[in-house]
């Protein structure tokens, strides 16, 4: 089932990316929600004529966000079949991971053993151990991990984990992993989507913790601690797979479309800050 989902994401990535970027490069954008058209503003604060369906824009956000993580997982799956990785040759595996790092969003690249001991490209053998991580048992069971939110034991930064098992004779002998820096991923998505200033985006997991966010100060925050209205809205989103919600935050109303991704199990939200023609804060 996961493989089918990942395949669908790959097919959608190019189309969704174009949907997200075309309006921006033309200098035009409006978001069209089910009950009406909500104008996005250009840099001069003027409404533009180009219209993008809100669900298309949200799909673009999901496929771009998930796509960065899926791309790393795909590269890891290729590396996991290589003899030097299966043999646990760290020096050769390290060079392979450096190449993956050069082609992807910034992340801490690592290789782990079933014992939980691990090595990183930046520091080689790590002093910490990964065995206590909730995702580790899934890797030992041969499952791919995409999107688990943790504070990195090595960098102490907020990250999303992407990891795949390394198999030998159907037995897990190691793991290839990337701890993707959420602030860097958020910035990358912000640049790629280049949304008008009154359009915001975010994602969060089931805890809930904020994952990516247009406002990097909100990354890894518990949204339920941001006020009663935000608490109500996020509880409503957590109770559904998709839908729309409105709430007030920082003195402005936010109209949000949201949908849960089956790849990362994050809920993604995209919406309009009402009465906001400048920076959406």
From TrEMBL:
It comes from the Bacteria. Gene3D superfamilies: PAS domain. InterPro entries: Sensor-like_sf. This is Cache domain-containing protein. It comes from Geotalea daltonii (strain DSM 22248 / JCM 15807 / FRC-32).
């Amino acid at each position: 089932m996961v493989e089918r989902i990942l395949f669908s994401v790959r097919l959608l990535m190019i189309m969704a990316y174009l949907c997200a970027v075309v309006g921006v490069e033309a200098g035009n954008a409006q978001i069209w929600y089910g009950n009406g058209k909500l104008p996005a503003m250009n840099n001069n604060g003027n409404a533009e004529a180009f219209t993008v369906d809100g669900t298309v824009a949200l799909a673009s956000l999901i496929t771009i966000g998930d796509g960065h993580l899926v791309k790393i997982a795909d590269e890891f799956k290729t590396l996991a079949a290589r003899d030097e990785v299966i043999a646990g040759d760290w020096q050769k595996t390290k060079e392979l991971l450096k190449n993956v790092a050069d082609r992807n969003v910034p992340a801490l690249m690592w290789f782990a053993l079933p014992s939980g001991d691990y090595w990183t490209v930046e520091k080689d053998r790590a002093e910490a151990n990964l065995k206590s991580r909730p995702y580790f048992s899934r890797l030992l069971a041969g499952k791919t991990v995409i999107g688990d939110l943790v504070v990195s034991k090595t960098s102490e930064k907020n990250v999303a984990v992407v990891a795949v098992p390394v198999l030998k004779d159907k037995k897990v002998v190691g793991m290839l992993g990337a701890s993707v820096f959420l602030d860097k991923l958020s910035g990358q998505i912000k640049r790629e989507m280049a949304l008008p200033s009154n359009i915001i985006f975010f994602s969060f997991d089931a805890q809930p913790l904020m994952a990516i966010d247009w406002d990097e100060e909100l990354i890894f925050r518990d949204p339920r601690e941001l006020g009663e209205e935000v608490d109500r809205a996020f509880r409503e989103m957590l109770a559904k797979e998709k839908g729309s919600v409105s709430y007030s935050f920082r003195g402005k109303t936010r109209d949000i479309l949201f949908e849960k991704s089956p790849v990362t199990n994050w809920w993604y939200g995209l919406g309009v800050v009402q009465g906001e023609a400048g920076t959406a804060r």
